[in-house]
Amino acid sequence: QAQLVESGGGLVQPGDSLRLSCAAPLRTTMWYTMAWFRQAPGKEREFVAAIGRTGSRTYNIDSVKGRFTISKDDPKSKVFLQMDKLQPEDTAVYYCAAAQPGKPSKEISSYENWGQGTQVTVSS
Fold first, then answer.
1. Which SS3 state, helix, strand or coil, does residue 44 take?
2. Which helix (H) or strand (E) holds 19?
3. What is the mean pLDDT of residues 68-96?
4. Residues 6+ positions from 34 with CB-CB distance below 8 Å
5. What is the model's pLDDT at position 1?
6. pLDDT tens readout for residues 1-54
7. Beta strands at 57-59 and 68-73: parallel, antiparallel or unpaired
8. Neighbours of 69 (CB within 10 A)
9. What CA–CA distance (Å, rounded) separates 52 from 58?
10. β-strand 57-59 against 33-39: which pairing, if any?
11. Which residue in 55, 58, 96, 98 has the most C-beta neighbors within 10 A?
């Protein structure tokens, strides 16, 4: 199984930006659909964004509202989530995940491999 390691979380103020990173084993991002999910306290884990093998992007429009951008660096096998204009409701643990290509990218059940998560807290 692919070992995914997230980093970049922290405590920020409303309106600030953060860039999350996910390091994956070599060539993982070239062959898998990579995604970010998040889970706030007391809530279910929800889809945030995904990027496919060819670089096609899918977003949870309701939650990210054009503020977040997913990208990847295939030679380094890394995936990023640029988060701008952060709000308190974005507070959550953010998880990186990998799925076999062709599976529905917004479905949690599609993802076989998960990282341990990185905490993002937005508070004034």
1. coil
2. strand 18-23
3. 97
4. 22, 24, 28, 50, 51, 70, 72, 79, 96, 97, 98, 99
5. 61
6. 669 999 999 999 999 999 999 999 999 999 999 999 999 999 999 999 999 999
7. unpaired
8. 16
9. 9
10. unpaired
11. 96
Q: How far, in Å, CA of 21 to CA of 108, rounded?
A: 20
Whether 112 contacts 100, CB under 8 Å: yes
Residue that is written with structure tokens 């799925």 in the block: 99
Contact between residue 38 and residue 92 where contact means Cβ atoms under 8 Å apart: yes
Classify residue 65 by burial, with Cβ atoms within 10 Å: 0-12, 13-18, 19+: exposed
Instruction: Write the single-letter amino acid at 3.
Output: Q
Q: ∠ at Cα 98 (66, 108), nearest 5°?
A: 70
d(CA 27, CA 39): 27
Whether 79 contacts 57, CB under 8 Å: no
